[in-house]
Amino acid sequence: MNGKIEQSDSAQQPLRPRPLWQRLLYPFIGIILVILGIILWLTPVVMGFPLIIIGVPLLFCFHPRLELRFRRKMHTIRLMMMNKVKRTEEKRAEVAAMENSSSDSIEYAKSIGYSKQEMKSVPEEAALTHGCGNPTVLAELKEGQTVLDLGCGGGLDVFLAARKVGRKGRVIGLDSSPEIVEKADTSARKNKYENVEFKVAEIEKLPVPDDFVDVVISNCVINHSSDKLVVFREAHRVLKPGGRMFVSDLVTAGKFTEHDLQSVDKLWADWLAAASGKQDYLNAIKEAGFRIITVLAEGTFPMAEADNILKGKIISIQIKGIK
Predict the structure, then answer these.
(1) pLDDT in tens, 120-144
(2) Is this model's pTM higher than 0.70 or not?
(3) Residue 218, Cα to own-chain centre: how many angstroms?
(4) Which spans in 42-63 are helix H?
(5) What percent helix, strand, coil does the chain show, rounded to 5?
(6) Is the same domain home to 175 and 246?
């Protein structure tokens, strides 16, 4: 609304002077009220002053210009009060929507492996996830370790990992969106996270030296890459010997016809264009050089189960790989 006064069609119509009989009657009533108010004011009666307040404006009704000016002023005040009430109601609605959104986000996070305590422990603006698991629980992080998060988003997993590795540790979050990285970095500085760092980067080309990190984590991001082998090779490159990779991701089970791709929601159709089957996904990790690969958990992805085409064919998988 930007502080602007909104007017209805009726409010935008020009105000016209009142008829002569009203311009004579109202001042007459005003004079009576003022006189009565003065009389009462001089006596121990509380009612006197309000009568004067009511009566004085009525005196201006005799002069057309003064009367119009007064009415316009009162009209503006009324509109401002109406807009103030409207803005208050809109603000309350926004707050309620944010609370509902926050509540829904926490419920979704709990359904994929986060605890309520974990969600409450991170900055509010970071307590949102579009993931499909909780890699920080799987990773068994220890104090002093260096962690790299591929596709960190708002920084949820970064902030959770930062608490586990402590001040002697370090967590690096990478995301391809400059806006998201800027927000995450602002959140880190605002909440005094001194052991985290956010960078803009593609997961196919990591701005990290060889043999640099102890643990690589990723939450439902690698599935979007059209060249997963390159991503896993980069993850393998930056890990120290014996370093571990923990990935929560989505894979497909079964095939999708052209008709299926045209029938599902566009968001899913775009995702399926780059998605891999479970075995292809595991083969890419093996080809990248990881010597031990373990599927820690898997199951159907709840958000896909409501669609008959996707039901049973979108699998949430948790994987551990050791260099």
Answers:
(1) 888 877 776 677 889 998 898 999 9
(2) no
(3) 20
(4) 48-59
(5) 50, 15, 30
(6) yes
